[in-house]
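R.M. (postdoc): so does anyone remember the format we settled on? I'll just put the structure tokens first.
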């Protein structure tokens, strides 16, 4: 009977150790993902403003912004957020270059 107490104690200690290691890591990953999506949304908003201010339509920039918005709608991970941000920034740069002439 005492061996059962020892086994349960070992399981509790192992679970506590796992929790001590895993919880901060999971929080960090969640923070990185949320930060990446915040940057992606800001880039999409900036590209949308540039699109609205553009005098003529640019199909390539429209396609890039559409891809960025689709990725944002899918709510993927950190890599998807970085890809969406890159697409939006490229679209914004195209519209800004067209506005400069």
């Amino acid at each position: 009977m005492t061996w059962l107490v020892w086994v349960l104690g070992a399981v509790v200690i192992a679970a506590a150790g796992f929790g001590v290691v895993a919880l901060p890591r999971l929080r960090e990953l969640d923070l990185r993902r949320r930060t990446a999506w915040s940057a992606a949304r800001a880039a999409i908003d900036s590209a949308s403003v540039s699109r609205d201010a553009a005098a003529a339509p640019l199909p390539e920039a429209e396609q890039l912004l559409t891809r960025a918005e689709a990725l944002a709608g899918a709510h993927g991970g950190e890599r998807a957020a970085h890809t969406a941000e890159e697409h939006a920034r490229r679209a914004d740069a195209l519209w800004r270059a067209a506005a400069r002439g």
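R.M.: ...and that's the designed sequence above, right after the tokens. Also worth knowing: The radius of gyration is 23 Å. The chain is about 90% helix and 0% strand.
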